[in-house]
Queue: 3 jobs
Job 1
Amino acid sequence: MNPIFSRLKEQNSLPSPLLFVGQKKELLLEEVGDFCRSLIQRRAIDHPDLMFFTLESGSKTYSMETIRMLIHEASLVPFEEPFRYFVLDQVDTMLPVHQNALLKVLEEHPPFIKFILLATSVSPLLPTILSRVKKFFLEESAEQKARFPDFTRPFSELHQKVQNFDEKYSFTDLEDAEAVMHRLNRDTLLWTLEGARAETMHIKKKHLMESFYALFHTQTD
C-alpha cells in the first residue's frame, strides 16, 4: 500500500473530499479501491457503502444521469458502516457542466459521506473543484513541483523560457498557490486572467509567470 494511504488510515477521520492524482489510471483505481475496502468492516465485493462512479459506457466523459444519481446517493445515510465512500474515477474527463453540478455536494455533503476523486491530471479540473479537495500525488510529477524562472532576467528572455513549460499543468496545484494569489495586486491579477479561457477561468503557468515578473519588478524598482 502506498505510504499516503497508510498515513490516511492513521487519522481519526478521513478528510473529504480527497483527490488522488496518478498517471496509471488502472493502478490508481485498484489502489484506491483496496484502500477503501480496508476501511470497511464487512468485506464484500459489492458493498452498499462503497460506490464507484465512472464514465458512461462507450463515452469519453460522464453522463448527467450518473452525476444526478451520485448527488441523490449522497443524501442517503450509510447502510452498515459509519461512512459511505464514493469513488469518482477519471474526474479529469468530466466536462465543466458536470463539475459545476458537483460543486455544491462536494462542499456541503453530509458528514457521513466521503468523496474520493481520481485523476491522471488536474489541469482539466476547474479551480472551484480544486479549491474544495485535498490533493495527493501518488507519483512524482511536474504538478508537484513549482518551477519558476529567474525573474531578474529581461522579460523577453523570461518569456522564451516560459514557452517551454508544459501548459497542461495548472498553477492552482502548486504548493501555497492560494496564498501567493492573495499577494498579487489587482492589476497583476487582472493581467493574469486576461489569458485564461473564459469558460473555465483556467490560470496557465505562462500567465502566472508574467504576473510574477510584473510583481517582482514592481517590488524591486
Job 2
Amino acid sequence: MQKSETLWHDQMVRKLQINGKSERTQAAYTRAVHQLKTHYKKDPSLINEEELEEYFLYRRNESEWAPKTLGLCYYGIRFYYQFVLMESFLDSESPERGTASRDTDKRNDPQSPFPRHHVS
C-alpha cells in the first residue's frame, strides 16, 4: 500500500477500535471506504458530497447491491467522514436524523436512502 492508502486506513482502524467496533465491522467499514476510493481513483478525503450521492446511486441502481450491502457501505463511509475526517455527512439524507436512540429501527425513517424491504 502507498502512504496515502495506509494513512486513511490506519486512521480509520484506530477510530473503529476506539469506538469498540468488532474486527468484522472494521474490515467491512474499511472495505467500503476502499471501494469508494477505488471507484473515484482518489483519496477518500477529496471526495465531495455530490460524488458521494452519485456513488450511492450508482451502487444501488447500476451495481444493484442488496439493501443490506448498500447499508453497510453507507455506514462504513459515514463512519469515515464523521469520526476520521470529523465532518458532517450528507446531513439531509442521514438515516439517523434527529435524536433517535440506538435501539430505534432507523430503517423505517422515510428520509432514509435505504428503505426497509419486507419479507413475506
Job 3
Amino acid sequence: MRTNIAIDGIRHLQYEIREIVDYGHKLAAMGVPMIWENIGDPVAAGEPVTPWIKEVVMDLARQDSSWAYCPSRGVLKTREFLSADASARPDGVPLTADDILFFNGVADSVDKIYDLIRRDARVLMQAPSYPTHSSNEAKRSQYERLQFHLDHKNGWRPDIDEIENKVRYNPQIVAIALVNPDNPTGTCYRRDTLDAIVDIARRYRLFLICDEIYANICYNGAETLHLSQVVGDVPALAMRGLSKDYPWPGSRCGWVEMLNRELDPAFKEYCEAMVKTKMMEVCSTTLPQMSIPLVYGDPRYQEVKQRRAAIFEKRANDVYQFFRDEPGLIVHPAQGAFYFCVTFEDGLLNDHQTLPLPNPQVREYVERKVRGVAPDKRFVYYMMASVGVCVTPLSGFHSKINGFRLTTLRTDDAERMRVLGIIRGAIRDYLAS
C-alpha cells in the first residue's frame, strides 16, 4: 500500500487467552495432545445448561418477533425489567429504561466505551487486568497503560494510596476501571475498598467503569456488590451480560448501566455518543435480550445462582488446598468467577529452566518461541510442550507478576484433580531444572 493503514495503537492489542491457542494447536500438530484450561466458557467445558432455561430460549425462537430487529438501545420490555431490578438494589442508584444500553456481549461494550474517550484522556485500571480492557485502552490512547496494582501477597488487594497518587499526578486520567468479581484473580472488591475508590472519583471529578460480568458468581463469604450500590452521585458505567450467568457465552448479549448520566454534562454527552454509535450498528441481537425477564424473573433462577456459586466455591477451594503448601508458590482463596491464580515467589523463575522435550521438532519450536518472552510465559510454553496443559500466563494480563491463571470449569472432579497434579509436577520439575 502507498501508506500505512492500521492505527499505531494496534501494537497494543494483545489477548493471550486466545493467542496461546495458536501455539497449542501448533504443538498438537506435532503430536502433543493438549488439555485446555485457558478459556472461560462453561458450556464448552461441559457444564449442562439448565433445561428450563433451554426451554425459554427455544420457545422464544419459535416467535417471529425474536428474528426481527429490536430498538437500538435494546428490547424495551427487557430494559424496563433490568432498570427496575437495578433500582431495587439496597442503596442503588435509580435507573430508567433509557439508562440501559445493549451491546453484542460485554466485550463489544468495552470496545465502544474506550473508543469514545478522547485520545489525550486516560483510564486508570488494575494490574493484572483483563486484556479486553487494557488492550482497548492502550489501542485508543496509543500510550503505555496507566495501572494500579493488585497485591498478590495480600489477597490481591489494591493500594488506595497508589490509586490516589496515580490520579493526582496524572491529570489526564478521566476514569478508573475495575473488574468485580475479578478476572483473572478471582478476588472481590470489599465495600470499604469500593467506597474509597468512589471517594477518589468524586473528589477528582472522574467517572467509574466496572465490569460486573461475574456479579452472580460470588462465594467464600464475598457479597455480590454492584457499583450502583456504592457509587452515590458519581457518574459510572457498569457492564453486565449473559455469558457466565445462564451460562450462554455464544449469545453475545451484554448491556451497560449508565449511572448518574444526567448529573454531569460531559458524561451525559459521552453516554449519548454511545447510544448514537449503537444506532449506527442498528441494534444488538434480539432473542437473547427477550429471554432476560423470563429467566432472571423466574423464581427458579435463584436456585440456579446458588447452586452454581456453591459448585465454583468448592472447586476453587479444592485448587487452593492443592497448591497452598507448595514451596515457591503464592495462592489465595478465590471469592468469585471461575478462575484461580497461582503466582511464583519473586526471582524464582529464570531463562535457564526447562522441561523435558524428547521430540526434536517440538524442542526446536519451543526454544525459538520462548526467546525474549516473560518468565511466566516461558514456563507456560514449556509446560504445554512437555505435559500438554494450557493455562494463561499472568503476563498476558498486562502484569509483571509471574504466575498463571487456570479455570475451575472442568466438571469431572477426578479429572480436574488429575490435571492439577500434572501442573504441580511440571512446576516442581521446572523449578528443579
